[in-house]
Amino acid sequence: MQANVSIDVSLAQLLGLFTALLIGAVLRFWNLDAKPLWMDEVITAIFSMGRNYFEVPLEQFFSVSALDQLFQLKPTTCANIAQTVSVQSVHPPLFFCWLHQWLQWVPGDWVWQLRSLSAIAGIAAIALVYGLNQAAFSPGAGAIAGLVMSVSPFAVYLSQEARHYTIPMLFVIVSLMGLIRIQQDLLQQKRSLNVWMGWTVVNGVGFYVHYFLVLAISAQFFALLVLQIQLKSRQSLKFWWRTWSAIAFAGLGIFAICLPWIPTFISHISRPETDWLETAQANWWSFLVPLYQFAAGWLVMVVSFPVEYQPIWIIVLSGVAMLLFAGWVIWCVLKGLKLLWNDPKTHWETLMLMSFVIGVMLEFFAIVYILGKDITQVPRYNFIYYPAVCALIGASFWQLNRVQPSKFEAPFLLYFVGGLSCIFVVSNLVFLKPYMPDRVAQNISSANCSAIVMSYKDFQDIALGLGFALAIQTDEKQHPQPCQPSRFALISRTQGYDSFWRKLATLKVQAPPVQKLWAIAPGLRMREFPAQVKLQNGICDRNSAQQYRIGIPYVGYDCR
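Above: the chain's sequence. Below: its structure in C-alpha coordinate form.
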Protein backbone atom coordinates (compact mmCIF):
# COMPACT_ATOMS: atom_id res chain seq x y z
CA MET A 1 0.00 0.00 0.00
CA GLN A 2 2.82 2.40 0.90
CA ALA A 3 4.54 1.65 -2.42
CA ASN A 4 1.39 2.50 -4.34
CA VAL A 5 1.10 5.81 -2.46
CA SER A 6 4.73 6.64 -3.30
CA ILE A 7 4.16 5.84 -6.96
CA ASP A 8 1.06 8.06 -7.00
CA VAL A 9 2.98 10.92 -5.35
CA SER A 10 5.83 10.59 -7.82
CA LEU A 11 3.43 10.59 -10.77
CA ALA A 12 1.70 13.67 -9.36
CA GLN A 13 5.05 15.45 -9.02
CA LEU A 14 6.10 14.53 -12.54
CA LEU A 15 2.70 15.67 -13.79
CA GLY A 16 3.28 18.94 -11.95
CA LEU A 17 6.65 19.39 -13.66
CA PHE A 18 5.20 18.55 -17.08
CA THR A 19 2.34 21.00 -16.50
CA ALA A 20 4.79 23.71 -15.44
CA LEU A 21 6.91 23.17 -18.55
CA LEU A 22 3.88 23.16 -20.85
CA ILE A 23 2.35 26.31 -19.34
CA GLY A 24 5.76 27.96 -19.26
CA ALA A 25 6.39 27.19 -22.93
CA VAL A 26 3.00 28.54 -24.04
CA LEU A 27 3.41 31.78 -22.09
CA ARG A 28 7.00 32.36 -23.23
CA PHE A 29 6.36 31.80 -26.94
CA TRP A 30 2.99 33.56 -27.00
CA ASN A 31 3.32 36.83 -28.96
CA LEU A 32 7.10 36.41 -28.81
CA ASP A 33 7.79 38.71 -31.76
CA ALA A 34 4.81 41.05 -31.32
CA LYS A 35 6.51 43.66 -29.16
CA PRO A 36 8.92 46.20 -30.67
CA LEU A 37 12.65 45.82 -30.25
CA TRP A 38 14.05 48.41 -27.88
CA MET A 39 17.55 49.79 -27.42
CA ASP A 40 19.13 46.87 -25.53
CA GLU A 41 17.63 44.30 -27.89
CA VAL A 42 18.95 46.27 -30.88
CA ILE A 43 22.40 46.06 -29.27
CA THR A 44 21.92 42.29 -28.99
CA ALA A 45 20.90 42.10 -32.65
CA ILE A 46 23.93 44.07 -33.87
CA PHE A 47 26.51 41.97 -32.05
CA SER A 48 24.88 38.55 -32.37
CA MET A 49 24.41 39.03 -36.12
CA GLY A 50 28.15 39.55 -36.48
CA ARG A 51 27.87 43.26 -37.13
CA ASN A 52 29.05 46.44 -35.44
CA TYR A 53 28.09 50.09 -35.11
CA PHE A 54 30.40 51.18 -37.92
CA GLU A 55 28.04 49.46 -40.37
CA VAL A 56 25.16 51.74 -39.37
CA PRO A 57 24.62 54.63 -41.82
CA LEU A 58 25.31 57.86 -39.93
CA GLU A 59 25.17 61.54 -40.86
CA GLN A 60 22.85 60.76 -43.78
CA PHE A 61 19.21 60.01 -44.53
CA PHE A 62 18.34 56.41 -45.29
CA SER A 63 15.07 54.66 -45.98
CA VAL A 64 13.72 52.67 -43.02
CA SER A 65 13.26 49.80 -45.46
CA ALA A 66 17.07 49.60 -45.69
CA LEU A 67 17.13 48.24 -42.14
CA ASP A 68 16.31 44.81 -43.56
CA GLN A 69 19.82 44.71 -45.00
CA LEU A 70 21.50 45.91 -41.81
CA PHE A 71 19.80 43.30 -39.64
CA GLN A 72 20.86 40.29 -41.66
CA LEU A 73 23.08 37.58 -40.24
CA LYS A 74 26.72 37.90 -41.24
CA PRO A 75 28.54 34.67 -40.25
CA THR A 76 31.67 35.33 -38.24
CA THR A 77 33.70 33.83 -35.39
CA CYS A 78 33.24 34.14 -31.65
CA ALA A 79 36.68 35.78 -31.48
CA ASN A 80 35.50 38.57 -33.79
CA ILE A 81 32.31 39.04 -31.79
CA ALA A 82 34.33 39.18 -28.57
CA GLN A 83 36.60 41.83 -30.07
CA THR A 84 33.62 43.96 -31.15
CA VAL A 85 31.87 43.59 -27.79
CA SER A 86 35.02 44.49 -25.88
CA VAL A 87 35.24 47.84 -27.70
CA GLN A 88 31.64 48.79 -28.46
CA SER A 89 29.82 47.41 -25.42
CA VAL A 90 30.05 46.86 -21.65
CA HIS A 91 29.15 43.17 -21.65
CA PRO A 92 31.03 39.86 -21.82
CA PRO A 93 30.88 38.01 -25.15
CA LEU A 94 29.60 34.47 -24.57
CA PHE A 95 25.86 35.16 -24.88
CA PHE A 96 26.35 36.95 -28.19
CA CYS A 97 28.49 34.10 -29.51
CA TRP A 98 25.88 31.52 -28.58
CA LEU A 99 23.06 33.60 -30.03
CA HIS A 100 25.04 34.05 -33.26
CA GLN A 101 25.23 30.28 -33.63
CA TRP A 102 21.56 29.94 -32.68
CA LEU A 103 20.55 32.34 -35.45
CA GLN A 104 22.29 30.08 -37.96
CA TRP A 105 20.36 27.04 -36.76
CA VAL A 106 16.84 28.34 -36.24
CA PRO A 107 14.63 29.45 -39.17
CA GLY A 108 11.95 32.13 -39.01
CA ASP A 109 11.50 35.87 -38.67
CA TRP A 110 14.68 37.43 -37.30
CA VAL A 111 12.96 39.10 -34.33
CA TRP A 112 11.43 35.76 -33.33
CA GLN A 113 14.80 34.07 -33.82
CA LEU A 114 16.50 36.67 -31.68
CA ARG A 115 14.15 36.19 -28.73
CA SER A 116 13.60 32.45 -29.03
CA LEU A 117 16.88 31.50 -27.35
CA SER A 118 15.85 33.44 -24.24
CA ALA A 119 12.45 31.72 -24.32
CA ILE A 120 14.06 28.27 -24.53
CA ALA A 121 16.38 29.15 -21.64
CA GLY A 122 13.36 30.36 -19.66
CA ILE A 123 11.69 26.97 -20.10
CA ALA A 124 14.91 25.20 -19.10
CA ALA A 125 15.02 27.35 -15.95
CA ILE A 126 11.66 25.88 -14.90
CA ALA A 127 13.10 22.36 -15.07
CA LEU A 128 16.27 23.40 -13.24
CA VAL A 129 14.46 25.17 -10.39
CA TYR A 130 12.47 21.95 -9.99
CA GLY A 131 15.79 20.11 -9.71
CA LEU A 132 17.12 22.69 -7.23
CA ASN A 133 14.18 22.28 -4.86
CA GLN A 134 14.13 18.52 -5.34
CA ALA A 135 17.76 18.40 -4.20
CA ALA A 136 17.24 20.89 -1.38
CA PHE A 137 13.81 19.90 -0.08
CA SER A 138 11.68 17.37 -1.98
CA PRO A 139 10.18 16.66 -5.42
CA GLY A 140 6.93 18.24 -4.16
CA ALA A 141 8.73 21.49 -3.37
CA GLY A 142 10.35 21.27 -6.80
CA ALA A 143 7.00 20.89 -8.55
CA ILE A 144 5.54 23.95 -6.80
CA ALA A 145 8.66 26.03 -7.52
CA GLY A 146 8.48 25.01 -11.18
CA LEU A 147 4.84 26.08 -11.39
CA VAL A 148 5.61 29.34 -9.61
CA MET A 149 8.33 30.15 -12.13
CA SER A 150 6.21 29.06 -15.09
CA VAL A 151 3.54 31.68 -14.27
CA SER A 152 5.83 34.36 -12.89
CA PRO A 153 5.26 37.59 -14.88
CA PHE A 154 8.87 38.56 -14.19
CA ALA A 155 10.19 35.27 -15.57
CA VAL A 156 7.98 35.48 -18.67
CA TYR A 157 9.08 39.07 -19.27
CA LEU A 158 12.76 38.09 -19.11
CA SER A 159 12.14 35.09 -21.38
CA GLN A 160 10.72 37.36 -24.09
CA GLU A 161 13.69 39.73 -24.07
CA ALA A 162 16.49 39.25 -26.59
CA ARG A 163 18.98 39.79 -23.78
CA HIS A 164 21.25 37.76 -21.53
CA TYR A 165 18.98 37.29 -18.52
CA THR A 166 17.49 33.80 -18.69
CA ILE A 167 20.75 32.12 -19.74
CA PRO A 168 22.66 33.58 -16.76
CA MET A 169 19.75 32.41 -14.61
CA LEU A 170 20.55 28.86 -15.71
CA PHE A 171 24.10 29.31 -14.46
CA VAL A 172 22.81 30.69 -11.15
CA ILE A 173 20.45 27.75 -10.65
CA VAL A 174 23.10 25.15 -11.49
CA SER A 175 25.61 26.84 -9.20
CA LEU A 176 23.00 26.90 -6.40
CA MET A 177 22.44 23.19 -6.94
CA GLY A 178 26.17 22.71 -6.49
CA LEU A 179 26.12 24.92 -3.40
CA ILE A 180 23.33 22.85 -1.83
CA ARG A 181 25.24 19.67 -2.59
CA ILE A 182 28.37 21.14 -0.96
CA GLN A 183 26.35 22.07 2.13
CA GLN A 184 24.80 18.61 2.36
CA ASP A 185 28.22 16.98 2.04
CA LEU A 186 29.74 19.23 4.70
CA LEU A 187 26.99 18.27 7.14
CA GLN A 188 28.21 14.69 6.74
CA GLN A 189 31.83 15.82 7.04
CA LYS A 190 32.77 14.89 3.50
CA ARG A 191 33.78 16.73 0.35
CA SER A 192 33.34 15.64 -3.26
CA LEU A 193 36.10 16.84 -5.57
CA ASN A 194 33.82 16.56 -8.62
CA VAL A 195 31.14 18.72 -7.00
CA TRP A 196 33.62 21.42 -6.02
CA MET A 197 35.24 21.41 -9.47
CA GLY A 198 31.89 21.54 -11.27
CA TRP A 199 30.71 24.36 -9.04
CA THR A 200 33.92 26.29 -9.75
CA VAL A 201 33.68 25.85 -13.52
CA VAL A 202 29.99 26.84 -13.70
CA ASN A 203 30.64 30.04 -11.77
CA GLY A 204 33.76 30.88 -13.77
CA VAL A 205 32.13 30.37 -17.16
CA GLY A 206 29.04 32.30 -16.03
CA PHE A 207 31.20 35.41 -15.71
CA TYR A 208 31.58 35.39 -19.51
CA VAL A 209 27.77 35.38 -19.92
CA HIS A 210 26.90 38.31 -17.64
CA TYR A 211 29.02 40.43 -15.32
CA PHE A 212 26.36 40.23 -12.61
CA LEU A 213 27.42 36.62 -12.07
CA VAL A 214 30.17 38.24 -9.98
CA LEU A 215 27.43 39.21 -7.53
CA ALA A 216 26.04 35.67 -7.53
CA ILE A 217 29.51 34.20 -6.97
CA SER A 218 30.22 36.57 -4.09
CA ALA A 219 26.83 35.81 -2.50
CA GLN A 220 27.55 32.08 -2.68
CA PHE A 221 30.83 32.58 -0.86
CA PHE A 222 28.92 34.66 1.68
CA ALA A 223 26.53 31.71 2.15
CA LEU A 224 29.51 29.38 2.64
CA LEU A 225 30.91 31.79 5.22
CA VAL A 226 27.62 31.69 7.14
CA LEU A 227 27.55 27.91 6.88
CA GLN A 228 31.11 27.53 8.12
CA ILE A 229 30.41 29.71 11.14
CA GLN A 230 27.37 27.58 11.97
CA LEU A 231 29.24 24.29 11.49
CA LYS A 232 32.34 25.09 13.53
CA SER A 233 31.01 23.44 16.67
CA ARG A 234 29.66 20.42 14.76
CA GLN A 235 32.82 19.39 12.91
CA SER A 236 36.34 18.40 13.79
CA LEU A 237 38.74 21.34 13.71
CA LYS A 238 40.90 19.63 11.09
CA PHE A 239 37.98 19.05 8.70
CA TRP A 240 36.69 22.61 9.29
CA TRP A 241 40.02 24.19 8.34
CA ARG A 242 40.39 21.94 5.28
CA THR A 243 36.99 23.13 4.14
CA TRP A 244 38.29 26.69 4.31
CA SER A 245 41.18 25.56 2.09
CA ALA A 246 38.69 24.07 -0.40
CA ILE A 247 36.75 27.35 -0.44
CA ALA A 248 39.96 29.29 -1.05
CA PHE A 249 41.05 26.99 -3.88
CA ALA A 250 37.59 27.23 -5.48
CA GLY A 251 37.84 31.03 -5.35
CA LEU A 252 41.27 30.91 -6.98
CA GLY A 253 39.91 28.55 -9.64
CA ILE A 254 37.06 30.91 -10.48
CA PHE A 255 39.50 33.81 -10.64
CA ALA A 256 41.79 31.84 -12.96
CA ILE A 257 38.90 31.11 -15.35
CA CYS A 258 37.88 34.77 -15.37
CA LEU A 259 41.42 36.16 -15.58
CA PRO A 260 41.72 36.50 -19.41
CA TRP A 261 38.70 38.84 -19.50
CA ILE A 262 39.27 40.73 -16.25
CA PRO A 263 41.24 43.62 -17.86
CA THR A 264 38.33 44.17 -20.26
CA PHE A 265 35.89 43.92 -17.36
CA ILE A 266 37.78 46.61 -15.45
CA SER A 267 37.79 48.88 -18.50
CA HIS A 268 34.03 48.39 -18.90
CA ILE A 269 33.28 49.43 -15.33
CA SER A 270 34.37 53.01 -15.96
CA ARG A 271 32.68 53.36 -19.37
CA PRO A 272 30.14 56.22 -19.73
CA GLU A 273 27.41 53.74 -20.80
CA THR A 274 26.70 53.11 -17.10
CA ASP A 275 26.34 56.79 -16.17
CA TRP A 276 22.55 56.60 -16.49
CA LEU A 277 22.51 54.55 -13.26
CA GLU A 278 23.81 57.47 -11.19
CA THR A 279 21.66 58.02 -8.10
CA ALA A 280 19.62 61.20 -7.86
CA GLN A 281 20.61 63.56 -5.05
CA ALA A 282 18.12 66.35 -5.69
CA ASN A 283 16.05 65.81 -2.52
CA TRP A 284 16.66 64.40 0.95
CA TRP A 285 14.04 61.70 0.39
CA SER A 286 15.87 60.39 -2.69
CA PHE A 287 17.66 58.15 -0.20
CA LEU A 288 14.39 56.22 0.16
CA VAL A 289 13.68 55.79 -3.56
CA PRO A 290 15.88 52.66 -4.00
CA LEU A 291 14.04 50.99 -1.11
CA TYR A 292 10.70 51.56 -2.83
CA GLN A 293 12.10 50.37 -6.17
CA PHE A 294 13.57 47.29 -4.52
CA ALA A 295 10.17 46.37 -3.05
CA ALA A 296 8.49 46.95 -6.42
CA GLY A 297 11.02 44.61 -8.01
CA TRP A 298 10.01 41.88 -5.58
CA LEU A 299 6.32 42.53 -6.17
CA VAL A 300 6.44 41.92 -9.94
CA MET A 301 8.02 38.52 -9.42
CA VAL A 302 4.57 37.16 -8.48
CA VAL A 303 2.01 39.70 -9.72
CA SER A 304 1.95 42.47 -12.31
CA PHE A 305 -1.24 44.25 -13.35
CA PRO A 306 -1.48 47.22 -15.76
CA VAL A 307 -0.39 50.46 -14.08
CA GLU A 308 1.69 52.12 -16.84
CA TYR A 309 -0.04 54.75 -19.01
CA GLN A 310 -3.51 53.63 -17.88
CA PRO A 311 -6.57 55.59 -16.70
CA ILE A 312 -6.36 56.51 -13.04
CA TRP A 313 -9.13 54.12 -12.00
CA ILE A 314 -7.29 51.17 -13.54
CA ILE A 315 -4.06 52.24 -11.86
CA VAL A 316 -5.79 52.44 -8.46
CA LEU A 317 -7.59 49.10 -8.82
CA SER A 318 -4.49 47.35 -10.13
CA GLY A 319 -2.28 48.83 -7.42
CA VAL A 320 -4.64 47.87 -4.59
CA ALA A 321 -5.14 44.36 -5.95
CA MET A 322 -1.39 43.85 -6.32
CA LEU A 323 -0.67 45.04 -2.79
CA LEU A 324 -3.39 42.85 -1.26
CA PHE A 325 -2.18 39.80 -3.16
CA ALA A 326 1.44 40.55 -2.27
CA GLY A 327 0.45 40.80 1.39
CA TRP A 328 -1.10 37.34 1.23
CA VAL A 329 1.97 35.88 -0.50
CA ILE A 330 4.32 37.47 2.06
CA TRP A 331 2.24 36.07 4.93
CA CYS A 332 2.34 32.58 3.41
CA VAL A 333 6.05 32.71 2.61
CA LEU A 334 7.07 34.00 6.04
CA LYS A 335 4.97 31.33 7.73
CA GLY A 336 6.43 28.66 5.44
CA LEU A 337 10.01 29.88 5.94
CA LYS A 338 9.54 29.68 9.71
CA LEU A 339 8.46 26.06 9.38
CA LEU A 340 11.38 25.28 7.05
CA TRP A 341 13.83 26.96 9.41
CA ASN A 342 12.58 25.05 12.45
CA ASP A 343 12.54 21.68 10.70
CA PRO A 344 15.96 19.95 11.09
CA LYS A 345 15.45 18.25 7.71
CA THR A 346 15.18 21.56 5.84
CA HIS A 347 16.96 24.03 8.12
CA TRP A 348 20.38 23.99 6.46
CA GLU A 349 19.10 24.22 2.88
CA THR A 350 16.87 27.12 3.91
CA LEU A 351 19.88 28.77 5.54
CA MET A 352 21.93 28.50 2.33
CA LEU A 353 19.26 29.89 0.01
CA MET A 354 18.33 32.69 2.39
CA SER A 355 22.00 33.58 2.91
CA PHE A 356 22.45 33.75 -0.85
CA VAL A 357 19.46 36.09 -1.27
CA ILE A 358 20.57 38.28 1.64
CA GLY A 359 24.11 38.37 0.23
CA VAL A 360 22.90 39.65 -3.15
CA MET A 361 20.64 42.21 -1.46
CA LEU A 362 23.57 43.53 0.56
CA GLU A 363 25.58 43.82 -2.65
CA PHE A 364 22.77 45.73 -4.34
CA PHE A 365 22.54 48.19 -1.46
CA ALA A 366 26.32 48.62 -1.47
CA ILE A 367 26.22 49.42 -5.20
CA VAL A 368 23.42 51.93 -4.64
CA TYR A 369 24.57 53.69 -1.46
CA ILE A 370 28.34 53.34 -1.69
CA LEU A 371 29.12 53.29 -5.43
CA GLY A 372 26.22 55.60 -6.30
CA LYS A 373 24.76 53.35 -9.02
CA ASP A 374 21.02 52.88 -8.54
CA ILE A 375 20.51 49.44 -10.07
CA THR A 376 17.20 49.09 -8.20
CA GLN A 377 15.57 51.31 -10.84
CA VAL A 378 15.94 48.39 -13.28
CA PRO A 379 13.78 45.44 -12.06
CA ARG A 380 15.26 43.09 -14.66
CA TYR A 381 18.58 43.10 -12.78
CA ASN A 382 16.87 41.09 -10.04
CA PHE A 383 17.31 38.08 -12.32
CA ILE A 384 20.55 37.35 -10.47
CA TYR A 385 18.81 36.16 -7.29
CA TYR A 386 15.29 35.51 -8.60
CA PRO A 387 15.84 31.71 -8.89
CA ALA A 388 16.61 31.49 -5.16
CA VAL A 389 13.53 33.58 -4.32
CA CYS A 390 11.41 31.33 -6.53
CA ALA A 391 12.86 28.25 -4.84
CA LEU A 392 12.07 29.62 -1.38
CA ILE A 393 8.52 30.56 -2.40
CA GLY A 394 7.96 27.05 -3.74
CA ALA A 395 9.46 25.43 -0.64
CA SER A 396 7.39 27.64 1.68
CA PHE A 397 4.09 26.74 0.03
CA TRP A 398 5.12 23.08 -0.05
CA GLN A 399 5.90 23.10 3.67
CA LEU A 400 2.62 24.80 4.51
CA ASN A 401 0.72 22.29 2.43
CA ARG A 402 2.64 19.41 4.04
CA VAL A 403 2.24 20.54 7.64
CA GLN A 404 -1.38 21.73 7.34
CA PRO A 405 -2.92 19.77 4.45
CA SER A 406 -6.45 20.18 5.74
CA LYS A 407 -6.19 23.95 6.13
CA PHE A 408 -3.88 24.92 3.32
CA GLU A 409 -4.46 23.56 -0.14
CA ALA A 410 -2.04 23.84 -3.07
CA PRO A 411 -1.37 27.50 -4.00
CA PHE A 412 -3.85 27.69 -6.85
CA LEU A 413 -4.46 31.37 -6.17
CA LEU A 414 -0.74 32.00 -6.70
CA TYR A 415 -0.87 30.17 -10.02
CA PHE A 416 -4.07 31.90 -11.16
CA VAL A 417 -2.92 35.44 -10.37
CA GLY A 418 0.52 34.71 -11.84
CA GLY A 419 -1.05 33.35 -15.02
CA LEU A 420 -3.31 36.38 -15.33
CA SER A 421 -0.29 38.64 -14.87
CA CYS A 422 1.54 36.76 -17.61
CA ILE A 423 -1.35 37.38 -20.00
CA PHE A 424 -0.89 41.09 -19.33
CA VAL A 425 2.84 40.69 -20.04
CA VAL A 426 2.44 38.97 -23.41
CA SER A 427 -0.32 41.44 -24.34
CA ASN A 428 2.12 44.35 -23.84
CA LEU A 429 0.11 45.87 -20.99
CA VAL A 430 2.84 45.56 -18.35
CA PHE A 431 6.64 45.61 -18.56
CA LEU A 432 6.38 48.10 -21.43
CA LYS A 433 9.52 48.49 -23.50
CA PRO A 434 11.66 51.43 -22.33
CA TYR A 435 11.08 54.57 -24.42
CA MET A 436 8.11 52.72 -25.99
CA PRO A 437 9.26 52.74 -29.63
CA ASP A 438 5.86 51.43 -30.79
CA ARG A 439 4.06 54.47 -29.34
CA VAL A 440 6.65 56.79 -30.83
CA ALA A 441 6.07 55.15 -34.23
CA GLN A 442 2.28 55.55 -33.90
CA ASN A 443 2.66 59.25 -33.12
CA ILE A 444 5.10 59.84 -35.95
CA SER A 445 3.50 57.81 -38.74
CA SER A 446 1.28 59.81 -41.11
CA ALA A 447 0.17 60.00 -44.73
CA ASN A 448 2.67 62.81 -45.33
CA CYS A 449 6.09 62.27 -46.86
CA SER A 450 8.06 62.10 -43.64
CA ALA A 451 11.65 62.33 -42.53
CA ILE A 452 12.85 61.61 -39.01
CA VAL A 453 16.11 62.84 -37.54
CA MET A 454 17.62 61.88 -34.20
CA SER A 455 20.74 63.09 -32.43
CA TYR A 456 23.29 60.73 -30.91
CA LYS A 457 26.41 61.06 -28.78
CA ASP A 458 27.39 57.40 -28.22
CA PHE A 459 26.72 53.85 -29.37
CA GLN A 460 23.71 53.50 -27.08
CA ASP A 461 22.00 56.47 -28.70
CA ILE A 462 22.57 54.87 -32.09
CA ALA A 463 20.91 51.66 -30.87
CA LEU A 464 18.05 53.70 -29.42
CA GLY A 465 17.53 55.47 -32.73
CA LEU A 466 17.58 52.18 -34.64
CA GLY A 467 14.88 50.91 -32.26
CA PHE A 468 12.68 53.85 -33.22
CA ALA A 469 13.43 53.33 -36.91
CA LEU A 470 12.53 49.63 -36.70
CA ALA A 471 9.25 50.46 -34.96
CA ILE A 472 8.45 53.03 -37.67
CA GLN A 473 9.26 50.46 -40.35
CA THR A 474 6.94 47.93 -38.70
CA ASP A 475 4.12 50.45 -38.32
CA GLU A 476 4.41 51.45 -41.99
CA LYS A 477 4.28 47.81 -43.08
CA GLN A 478 1.08 47.36 -41.07
CA HIS A 479 -0.46 50.68 -42.18
CA PRO A 480 0.94 51.47 -45.64
CA GLN A 481 0.65 55.05 -46.94
CA PRO A 482 1.46 56.49 -50.40
CA CYS A 483 4.58 58.38 -49.31
CA GLN A 484 6.19 55.56 -47.34
CA PRO A 485 8.78 54.37 -46.48
CA SER A 486 9.95 57.24 -44.32
CA ARG A 487 13.53 58.46 -44.24
CA PHE A 488 15.63 58.40 -41.08
CA ALA A 489 18.89 60.07 -40.11
CA LEU A 490 21.24 59.79 -37.12
CA ILE A 491 23.32 62.96 -36.60
CA SER A 492 25.99 63.50 -33.96
CA ARG A 493 25.43 66.05 -31.20
CA THR A 494 28.88 65.70 -29.63
CA GLN A 495 29.58 69.35 -30.55
CA GLY A 496 26.21 70.57 -29.28
CA TYR A 497 22.77 71.05 -30.76
CA ASP A 498 23.71 74.17 -32.74
CA SER A 499 26.08 72.01 -34.76
CA PHE A 500 23.39 69.33 -35.01
CA TRP A 501 20.85 71.68 -36.63
CA ARG A 502 23.46 73.07 -39.02
CA LYS A 503 24.46 69.56 -40.08
CA LEU A 504 20.80 68.68 -40.68
CA ALA A 505 20.44 71.63 -43.07
CA THR A 506 23.22 70.23 -45.29
CA LEU A 507 21.98 66.62 -45.57
CA LYS A 508 20.71 65.48 -48.94
CA VAL A 509 17.15 64.15 -48.86
CA GLN A 510 16.04 61.86 -51.64
CA ALA A 511 12.71 62.52 -53.40
CA PRO A 512 9.85 62.90 -52.70
CA PRO A 513 10.14 66.26 -50.93
CA VAL A 514 9.75 66.22 -47.16
CA GLN A 515 6.32 67.35 -45.96
CA LYS A 516 6.72 66.37 -42.31
CA LEU A 517 9.94 66.40 -40.27
CA TRP A 518 10.27 64.82 -36.85
CA ALA A 519 13.16 65.67 -34.56
CA ILE A 520 14.05 63.28 -31.72
CA ALA A 521 16.46 65.05 -29.38
CA PRO A 522 17.75 63.25 -26.25
CA GLY A 523 18.84 65.70 -23.57
CA LEU A 524 17.00 68.66 -25.11
CA ARG A 525 14.22 70.42 -23.23
CA MET A 526 10.96 70.99 -25.10
CA ARG A 527 11.33 74.78 -25.08
CA GLU A 528 14.79 74.48 -26.63
CA PHE A 529 13.53 73.02 -29.93
CA PRO A 530 13.85 75.75 -32.59
CA ALA A 531 10.77 77.34 -34.08
CA GLN A 532 12.12 76.69 -37.59
CA VAL A 533 14.42 74.03 -38.98
CA LYS A 534 16.19 74.30 -42.32
CA LEU A 535 16.52 71.42 -44.73
CA GLN A 536 18.53 71.41 -47.94
CA ASN A 537 15.40 71.98 -50.03
CA GLY A 538 13.05 73.81 -47.67
CA ILE A 539 12.09 75.20 -44.28
CA CYS A 540 10.06 73.42 -41.60
CA ASP A 541 7.91 75.18 -38.98
CA ARG A 542 7.39 73.74 -35.52
CA ASN A 543 3.91 72.30 -34.97
CA SER A 544 2.78 73.12 -31.43
CA ALA A 545 0.20 70.30 -31.53
CA GLN A 546 2.85 67.65 -32.19
CA GLN A 547 5.11 67.72 -29.15
CA TYR A 548 5.68 64.54 -27.20
CA ARG A 549 7.89 63.14 -24.49
CA ILE A 550 8.12 59.45 -23.66
CA GLY A 551 11.44 59.46 -21.85
CA ILE A 552 12.90 61.44 -24.75
CA PRO A 553 11.33 64.55 -26.36
CA TYR A 554 10.34 64.59 -30.03
CA VAL A 555 8.63 67.32 -32.02
CA GLY A 556 6.89 67.48 -35.38
CA TYR A 557 7.62 70.16 -38.02
CA ASP A 558 5.54 71.07 -41.09
CA CYS A 559 7.79 71.62 -44.12
CA ARG A 560 7.37 73.86 -47.16
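The chain has 21 helices and seven strands.
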